[in-house]
Structures are given as C-alpha cells and as structure tokens.
Amino acid sequence: MQNYSLSVWARCSLGAVGLEGADRRTATMADGKGFTCLMVILILGNIFGAAAGLALCALAIWVAVDQFKLYPISGVSGKDDIFAGAWIAIFTGFAFFCMCVFGILAAAMKSRALMLTYLILMLIIYIFECASCITAVTHRDYLVGNSNLVKKQMLKYYAADGDSGSQITLTWNKVMKEVECCGTDGPVDWIEYNSTFREKFGTDYPWPTHCCKRKNNYEVVNVEACKNGQNTTMFTKGCFNHIESVFSRYTWAISWYGFAVLMFMFLLLILAMVYYLML
Amino acid sequence: MSRSILVIPALPFHIMLRSHESHLFSTAMRTMFIFFGMLFTLSNAEFQVSLLKESDGVVTGRFADSLLLSLPPCALATQSVTLEYNNTDTNESKTLVNIFKVLPCRFRRDIISTIENNGQFTTSRNLGYQVTNLTTGSTYRLQYVVGAEKSNILEVSTRQVKDPNQIDSGLPARSGAMVVITVILSVSMFILLVALIVTVAHSLGGD
Predict the structure, then answer these.
(1) Would you say B176 and B162 are in contact if contact means Cβ atoms under 8 Å apart?
(2) pTM of the entire structure?
(3) Is Transmembrane helix one of the keywords (chain B) (predicted)?
(4) What's the pLDDT at B94?
C-alpha cells in the first residue's frame, strides 16, 4: 500500500515536471498520467475541503450561539470580534463547502473557464477567512490577556444603571452562581477598589451577596458570616480563570481550526493553479 | 505561666553570693532588680493580638473601614474586654469599653460568630472581633485591656481604596498564537495572490 502511494506521488510530480518542460501546445492537450493523477488529487482534495468547510461552519455556529452566555463581557468592552469572526466563519465555511463542490465539477469537466472562476472565488473566500482568524485571536488577547480589562469592567458596570450595566450585572451574577466564584481575581477586588457597587450600596456589604454560598432554596447560608469574609460561607476563588478559558475555547475554535482549514486550502489552491496551467 | 518565668533568675543570684566580691555583688543585685522588673512587666502585659489572616478562615482581616482582630486568650475567661485604639494620622483616640466578655476555653476562639446549622445541630465558632467605623487608608494602633492585663500594641492600617479608572486595561501583550496566525496567514494570502496573477498572466500570455 505504501509503495503504491509513493509511486503515485512520484508519477504525479514527474508528470507535472515533464509537462512543464514540454511544449506549451502539447502541454495543454496532454492527457498524461501526471495530468490525470493531478485531477484525481484535486477531486479528492476538494471532497476533503468541502467536509472541512462544513465543519468550520458548524463550529462557528457553536461559537456564535455562546452557550456560556459571556458575550456581554466582550460586547460592552467593544472587543467582540471573537464573535464577529465566528459569524464570518459561518459564511466562509459554508462558502468553502459550495466552492469545493464546484471545484470537483470544474476539475472533472477539465474546463479552463470554470477552473479560473473556482480559483478567483476561492481566493476571495480565503481572504475573508484569514480576516476572521486574525481578528478573533487579536481580540482574545485584548480581552483576556490579563485580568485587568475584565476587572475594570466589573467594577465599573456591575450594579450600574443603563443597558451595559444591567447586562454586565446579569452576566456576573450568573457566572458567580454557576462557577461558584467571586470577583475577578478574588473577593479582595471588591474591597481593594472603589466601584459602582460600593458607591451605590455603601460598605455594609463589602461584596455582592452572589458571592455568598446559598442553600438549595436560594437562601443565603449566613449573611453576617459572608459579610465578614469567612471562607466557609462564601466563594473565595476568582472568576477570571473561567472567563478566560471560555473565551480561549471560542477563539481556538475559530482561529486555530480556521488556520488549519486555510493551510489545507492553500495547498489545494496551489495544486489547482498548476492544474489550470496544464489545461 | 508567669510563675515559671520567675523561678529561673534565682539560680544566678545564688551563684553570685559564693564569689565574695562586694562590687560584683552590688552590680549583680542591680542586674537582678532590672531583670525582675522586666520580667514583671512582661508577665503582666502581653497576650498577643493580631489581625485575622486567611489561615484563620477569613478572606482578609483588613477592610476599608473595619479590621478583624483576634481575641484575647481564653485563660482570661469571663472578664470583660476594653479596646483602645488610636488613629496615628489624626491622633484621635477612642476607647470601646466592655465590648464583650472573653469566652471560656470550652469553646474555641471567638466572636465573629459562625453558626453552622445543618438542620440537626448548631455549632458556634467565634473567630475574632470586628472594629468598625474606621477611616480608609489610615494607620491605627490597637490594644486590648482585660482587667489588669494588656495586649501588645498592634499597628496596622486599613485598606486604601483605589480608583478603578487607574487600572490599565490596554493590550497586555501579544500572545504567540496571534503572531503565528497573523504572520503565516498574511504570507500565504500574499503568495496565493501573486501565484494567481502569475497563473492568469501566463495563461493569457500563452494564448
């Protein structure tokens, strides 16, 4: 099996080189082994590319749906291109799928016009997908490179009035309840810095009551102990680890998987250009 | 506890008498008195007071407007406690008289009371005393007075509340992933564009 595939590659490359060296007229009409071999490779590559593009579309839909409901943290800060990249990837993923199917057709029909259309459209989609990958990973660096942006946003917008304030408050309450954490790096954030929460509610409660442990009926276990900061009655770990891991997961889905698809498409397009030259 | 400390100096006094040198004897007496005097104050003062730390089961002992202090030892049980503190910046003193009674040794250390109720039994634990109504970012000297005993003077400051607008939320650093993805994708885009132009030009030129 291995010998056979090696010889296929050898025949393909020899065929391609041989044809390049030959006369132009004979090359366009050549139907040598190298040519057929390249056509087969192109068709197989396009089949695989169609599958990869569809998977990219599906993965990008998962990111856009945002099951962890952390979009407001990026939305309010203005650095929400992880999700913009996901939306672009939905369309480019599906477009890759369509174009690869078209590419199978174009390669099988040995038509120059179709192959040229294929190449130009694939290049346009390629460029959009590049944009999606790069912007997603750059905005992830802004958002969760360190905990400062998330902390500043929490202090400023938690319990604030207005649309941003309510979104951030709801998001943080949800995170603190589900992940069992308090503050960005820890509850000390709430007493170390001034905040909208402190200005509104004074210093009686050093941190929101969502930091306190609750019973199954949602009643706080011990409010006074939570106010004093006793470890057993409140959550003492910070929420940043969770937030960072969620955004990183979304980003790796869009940018690294998109990168992998693009590298594959790069090789496919180079081969398609060689094939086009041989037509 | 104080009794055991007083026993020790008796030995050198005894040794000194055997030397029969008068000036040595008088200096020895003076040293002894000073030594005894020091021991007397040491045994009289000095139970320890400190801020509560994470190992005591709280998030922090220093808040912006209050402090959590540890409690006097249970050996001084049933005596009432007075707290004297002094703001070193404004130099105003305050005395809180008879704030609580030292709880007996049956229970563990005291006052910030945890009541754990799991529906079957309730346990109370007391951790410390919270001094409230303090000013932010000031240094205080605090001392317990229990009957005739005083604690050491604890010098500690409340937290200075910082302005969140001073947090630098700019781009911290570019991660390796970002650099790799950007560079490789940009280069590949460029190569593809050039290759397409060459391909089209070649095919047009060839016709």
Answers:
(1) no
(2) 0.79
(3) yes
(4) 87
